[in-house]
Amino acid sequence: xxxxxxxxxxxxxxxxxxxxxxxxxxxxxxxxxxxxxxxxxxxxxxxxxxxxxxxxxxxxxxxxxxxxxxxxxxxxxxxxxxxxxxxxxxxxxxxxxxxxxxxxxxxxxxxxxxxxxxxxxxxxxxxxxxxxxxxxxxxx
Length: 140
Description:
It holds the Pfam family PLAC8. Belongs to the cornifelin family. The protein is mainly α. The protein has helices spanning 27-35, 37-47, 57-62, 69-81, 88-97, 99-113, and strands at residues 2-6, 117-121.
């Protein structure tokens, strides 16, 4: 029987685990965001338990010069979920001016805050001993 205990968190309470431009902290996320930004955004949405295609709505609004609603909304939701200090104005500015850096930061945050469970495997050891022989039975 296995029991699961949460592992230790690597992130300080109330802070983003990495800064907005800390791309070199996680090169895999940086490359993922650079080469396939929409895929990264959809991954973040899915890990936040939202519909994977939600960030694709941002494409519709990008031509109008608007704040990308999915990037902004998920950033606010992530700050609220993890009690990260910040402001709505900051979230608007980051989502509008540095949207791909914002998605990368959110992806790094989810990776670091995903408290990997520690699995403890407990096995019952049963010692089987042969039954005592009561007598010798002879069959003819």
